[in-house]
Fold Serine protease.
Amino acid sequence: MNQNSQTPPEFQKKKNSINPKYIAGAAAFVVAAGACGFGGAMLANNMTGPSGVTINQQSGNSSTAAINDVSDIAAKCGPSVVEITTQGVASSGGLLQQQYITQGAGSGVIMSEDGYIITNHHVIENATAIAVRTTDGQEYSAEIIGSDSQTDLAVLKINATGLSPATFGDSDSLEVGDAAIAIGNPLGELGGTVTTGIISALDRQITIDDTTMTLLQTDAAINPGNSGGGLFDASGNLIGIVNAKESSTGVEGLGFAIPINGAIDIINELIENGSVTSRPALNVSLYDYSGQSYYSQGNMEAGCYIVQVVEGGAADQAGLQVNDRIVKFDGQDITSSSEVKAILNEHKIGDTVTMVIERDGQQQEVNITLQSQSQQQ
């Protein structure tokens, strides 16, 4: 990730209720031996990941053909996309706090015949009850198998058999201008909606909730409730998880999707462990101080501060302390926690990385050996 490039645009993911200003997109994926994709020119690779779930993935680029009629794609892939509704409990602010029920809606993609489903983390975040409706009208209660806020991926499980899983495509082989077909549940009421467009750009650096993600850009219509649905190529193979759309300015045709190739390892980890354990971490909590914040002790300079250190973690072993300001990390200037996270994503567990911190007005350099993620950054 190029930290010297222009600051990426900021977007917010849709939470458990529809936000008219920022709405999350369509996306989701599917692992399994199923036939959503079609087009005999491609080779299918059946892989069994650590989770034991078989991934049926088409190799190579199958999206170059022009699309005039997507009825075959809709018919074959539609049954792989489900509607998701959630309920949660929230508390009002003020002295007399009251609890109330929140409701949300999104989409998901069936990844196995026995009921594993991929969706976005933000679709099911803070949910106390999750319901899944398939295209045949059957409704199931779902449990969360695993969820990861940093990649905005989650895996659900329903008690069902004989479902129609999707076939993964090859997002690494995509080119700008390739066809893109989104299937999802816009507005939480219009399940099975199909919209078409193209891949508008590759490798967009987009910051969502202080996390910088590398996403595909598409102009296929994305609306609230599409989150967690599928983005397919011209052969009906799943190529991305659409998870964000910017709508505050009224500009249309700006949807973003998580490339499927980068999601496969995360999906397997969520199924196997319930969380992502292979990601390196500092094992600290970070806070971005702007000068207008309640978290202030004395004359603090704006920047990224350590506000909690996990005992025995990487930062603790390197001698980092609460209130240290991170000045540089891996040779790059740091002004926010999102920049720290982006650099961490370029490393592996066991890597030793240099950090420059400021403590009591003095800068010092420390070497940190990265550990597994034992606490959310």
Remarks:
- The radius of gyration is 21 Å.
- DSSP finds five helices and 24 strands in the chain.
